[in-house]
Design brief:
Layout (H helix, E strand, L loop, with lengths): L1 H6 L3 H9 L2 H27 L3 H5 L2 E13 L9 E11 L2 E8 L2 E9 L3 E6 L34 E10 L2 E9 L8 E6 L4 E5 L6 E9 L7 E11 L4 E11 L4 E10 L18 E10 L3 E10 L2 E15 L2 E13 L4 E14 L2 E10 L2 E13 L2 E10 L7 E4 L9 E4 L3 E8 L3 E9 L6 E12 L1
Antiparallel strand pairs: 1-2, 1-26, 2-3, 3-4, 4-5, 5-6, 6-7, 7-8, 8-9, 9-10, 10-11, 11-12, 12-13, 13-14, 14-15, 15-16, 16-17, 17-18, 18-19, 19-20, 20-21, 21-24, 22-23, 24-25, 25-26
Length: 457
């Protein structure tokens, strides 16, 4: 009874009382010790015997589908419409999928064990590479680590084992994919899937993938994110690289990104070097300070066409409701045409917590260009974005167009179309992409829609 009454006292008074009562102190110590043992035993039992609910989490199923339509006379009929339907599931280390892509019925299977792994069919692969053996007519908006719907493949098979090197878990193996090489090749990927490498010795085609977030010990206040991917041979390859550095205490961001593309190549194949068309190398750099101060540069080489430029965005009024800024850009083109001009614009922008509202107009050699962008999170795990570009038809040089504000890879294009309207709604289980554009020198519009969904249960 005396112990019970003492426990009701304040913490400081209780310890003073306990120092004067050695017998009671010993009793309480024994009680606390036995209680701790019982708690530890209960925790250990929970770890050894997972509940039925926990076990059920390793068994999942899904249904998914997509529909894509392109309304344009510039594409043949067989390239305009594409549809797919998928069903599959996961049972512990096993994943399977059965799908219909247009008129093809395909399947995929994967096994991920402690020592060995295998990926077979038209969907699963051990590395996150986007370009590797990708089906050119389809893409997955829900791709990610352990996703039910990674990027769709053309028929490919992977077999390998897991090992350790200096405490780092690695996966190595061989692959067979006629899309990349008529003969088998080998691959290597780390456990976090932040680095992957494949090589075909007969064709010389290799692929690289890198994604890393890190902080240097010498500069702990600077966060870095680098992502890149490429595939091809030493003579002919495509790919991109993106790097972002952030200094949060200074509200400063630095982006540098670039890519190489080649018309007519949607996926890399063993005949990559035989494809015709001018390669485009494009690079873009941007420094953003306090969201509204911005400096940017761009360069592009496409065949004999060289384009470059730089720009400054400088706010003249900032408030909690956004900023009004002046933008100056210098455009230059060499090659078939030797042109240069200054663009002077005025913009209203609001940027806060991944929400963006930007409206502006630019004048270039007495020609006008209108720009608008609205981007914001609408629900948890869902984002909406609308981008608009309207140009006078007589503007000589191409305009800079940012496709997707939330992208973590290359995202800047050079466009000469008088009109571009792009709407994107992307979330955990639904995705909608719509674009409308007018081709230069032609009154016909190009309409594009891609819808994807998935249901998990």
């Amino acid at each position: 009874m005396e112990i019970f009454q003492a426990c009701k006292q304040e913490k400081k008074e209780f310890f003073l009382w306990l120092q004067k009562k050695p017998k009671e102190k010993k009793i309480l110590s024994l009680i606390y010790r036995e209680k701790s043992k019982a708690k530890a035993k209960h925790t250990e039992t929970k770890k050894e015997k997972p509940t039925k609910k926990t076990e059920e989490l390793n068994i999942q199923s899904f249904l998914a589908g997509s529909y894509q339509v392109t309304d344009s006379r510039y594409f043949p009929l067989y390239e305009r419409n594409h549809s797919s339907f998928q069903m599959g599931g996961k049972v512990y280390q096993y994943r399977w999928i059965l799908e219909k892509r247009d008129n093809r019925v395909l399947g995929g299977f994967s096994f991920e064990g402690n020592l060995f792994h295998a990926y077979l069919g038209s969907r699963y692969k051990p590395m996150p590479n986007f370009y590797f053996a990708k089906d050119p007519n389809f893409f997955s908006q829900f791709d990610g680590n352990q996703s039910h719907l990674p990027q769709p493949l053309l028929d490919s098979h992977f077999l390998g084992f897991n090992t350790k090197f200096k405490q780092e878990k690695l996966s190595l193996g061989i692959y067979k994919s006629y899309t990349v090489s008529p003969d088998p090749g080998f691959y290597f990927v780390n456990q976090e899937k932040s680095f992957a490498f494949t090589s075909s010795l007969t064709t010389g085609i290799i692929s690289l993938y890198l994604q890393k977030r890190f902080v240097w010990e010498m500069f702990p206040g600077v966060k870095h994110h680098i992502q890149g991917e490429g595939i091809g041979s030493a003579k002919s390859w495509i790919g991109f690289v993106f790097h972002r550095s952030e200094i949060n205490n200074l509200n400063l961001k630095f982006d540098i990104t670039g890519y190489r593309n080649q018309p007519g190549i949607n996926i890399p194949i063993s005949e990559l070097s035989e494809k015709q068309g001018s390669k485009q190398d494009l690079g873009f750099q941007r420094i953003r300070y306090k969201e509204y101060y911005q400096c940017e540069t761009l360069f592009s080489r496409e065949g004999l066409r060289y384009e470059s430029g730089f720009g400054i965005l400088y706010p003249v009024w900032i408030s909690a409701y956004g900023a009004i800024s002046f933008r100056y850009r210098y455009y230059e083109e060499k090659g078939f045409y030797n042109e240069h001009s200054f663009g002077r614009g005025i913009f209203y922008e609001y940027r806060e917590n991944n929400s963006i509202l930007s409206l502006g107009i630019e004048s270039r050699v007495n020609k006008l260009q209108y720009e608008a962008k609205i981007a914001y999170p609408v629900f948890p795990n869902y984002r909406f974005e609308l981008s608009i570009l309207l140009r006078d038809k007589d503007i000589m040089m191409r305009s800079w167009f940012e496709n997707w504000s939330f992208a973590t890879d290359f995202n800047m294009d050079l466009v000469d179309r008088p009109q571009i309207w792009k709407l994107k709604f992307v979330g955990q289980n639904l995705s909608l992409n719509v674009s409308i554009s007018e081709k230069k020198g032609d009154p016909n519009y190009i309409y594009y829609t891609n819808f994807q969904f998935q249901f998990l249960f």
